[in-house]
Amino acid sequence: LPPAFFTMTPDEVKREQQLRTERVESSLVLRTKAMREKEEQREMKKYRFALIRVRFPDGILLQGTFGVYEKLSEVFTFVQEHIVFPEGEFVLTTGTGLRLTEADMNKTLLELHLVPASILLFVWAGETPSEDYYLKPEVMLQLQSL
């Protein structure tokens, strides 16, 4: 990951401090659901990148960094470019079991609450290829231990 991923600008630090102060103040006040949702949206806007990891059934993780306003379709394209059987149909699900469907493709990663980082689970949806591995050989050569 680039160093910019981990560094915050002075404006972001000030905004973070302001948000923490507001959070303490708001915890002392009863709020409606709409107020809580608005605050949650404000909290999520501080991120510029989303770290998405896709876990394959063999335990290997494919990692990509995306902008928070990129669409879910970009994640699917990223996965498709790296798997050994790109024309195969697959499904990605969240760790909570939420299945990401065709209806979610035009939603941003921010809207899907995949920010700042998420692990998605990969499953073949249709015909399963005969290979025992999921990623292309050139991708497997770049494999690193976590």
TrEMBL record:
SMART domains: UBX
UBX domain ranges (all copies): 52-122
Domain of life: Eukaryota
GO cellular component: cytoplasm
One Pfam assignment: UBX
Protein name: UBX domain-containing protein
Organism in which the protein naturally occurs: Homalodisca liturata
